[in-house]
Amino acid sequence: MDRIAMTERDAALPEEAFRVEDGVAQDVETVTRELESFLDPDVIPDWLHTEQHALGGRTPMQALRDGHLAEVLQLANATEHDPYI
Length: 85
Description:
Elements: E1 2-3, E2 19-20, H1 22-36, H2 44-48, H3 60-65, H4 69-81
């Protein structure tokens, strides 16, 4: 298992929130690269762990674990063009 980067603000999240299964690590990296083009890297972990209406109330991490990379990338794209979705 890999871990995604953790900031001081993320210290309040449980340790397991940052564990990434090997099969999901590449998807997390893909989404993170997309987000880094328009978001401050310090807020990306928050974005990944925030429930999203567009994902049926799941977090992007939950959606990635469920195999929904395309949906998460669509949401990232939508976030870039309309941060108040």
